[in-house]
Every structure is written in structure tokens, then in C-alpha cells.
TrEMBL record:
Protein name: thiopurine S-methyltransferase
Subcellular location: Cytoplasm
GO cellular component, one term: cytoplasm
Organism listed in the record: Oceanodroma tethys
PROSITE patterns: SAM_MT_TPMT
Amino acid sequence: ADIGSQKDRVVTEEEWLQRWEMSKIGFHKEQGHPLLQKYLDVLLNGRSGLRIFFPLCGKAVEMKWLADMGHSVVGVEISKQALKDFFAEHSLPYCEEPVPEISGAKKLQSTSGNISLYCCSIYDLSSSIVGKFDGVWDRGALVAVNPCDRQRYVSLMITLMEKNSSYLLVTVSYDPNKHKGPPFYVPESEIKSLFG
């Protein structure tokens, strides 16, 4: 499967920030993603009180949904606007503090403590900062990562996963020569080689 003209495409952090500022966020789902509801049992695997990671979280409504079910949610997002919108839209009080290990980064945490959202590049995170996770909801993250950064992204994600964690991944299927992305096309063969 050829990813065609997408191989060298790069979307900068500035472009992502601009999308948030201009509300060009067609990828945001107000009602949450139907696939998470469908495969929730796979993610939770009968377990409660999990730590669940949302890479490139935006203002995903599922973060509140899972936190309300008693899980601890951690997200990372480059756009502070997205994170502030998340707390505002759910009327959740939060506090903001610097992340000592990452220059310029902020952590926005719900006052209840069960939702912690990091405002920084995902590549600045490590398990020493955010710990490890029992579950990952990757909806719109791998497909948003620049094709040249996929290996780096997946290597990081693997270091953030507990031994028996579940990873739910949503991708999109289309002809990559007809659409420049994002979301980018990630062939199944590449997902297998990336995650092993």
C-alpha cells in the first residue's frame, strides 16, 4: 500500500494552533466517538479505576465520560485553547501549573484531580513525567502525526504503556493520492510494523 504524496507532508505546530484559533476543527466530535462506546469493553477489559491516556486530545468529550466512570484521564495537546475549551464546555473547575521538566509546558488539572491535561508537544512527555497507562484511546492522533514522525510517536507510546494495557486505535481509509491529509492514511501493514 503506497501512501503516495503524503510521505513527505509536514503539518507544523503553528498550523495546528491556527486550526484551533479559527475553530477549523472538523475532527472534533461533540457527541463522542461511536467506536469508543462500541469497544469500551476491550479498552477496560473488566477493570476499573484505570489510567487512560488521550494523545493529541483536543477537547475530546470522552475524557469527561471516562473520568465520570471513575477512571483517571491524562491528555496531551499543543493547543491551550482546546484544553481551556474542554474545561469550560463541561463546566469543570481546574487549576493550571507549570511542568518543571518541560520548558513552557502547563498542566491543566480538574480540581477533582481525575483529569490532567498537558499543554506541550507530545514528544516532550515521558513516563517519568506522566507515568504509565492501562489504556490508550488514540482517535485522531496517529493519523495526525506527520508521516515522518510515526516511528518516534509509536516508540513513545510503547514506553507509556503498562504491560497489560489496551490500545484502541482509530484510523481512516482512503486513497492517499486524492487527499493530502491530515488525517493521514496509515496502511494496516504499517500499523503492524510500527506496533509489532
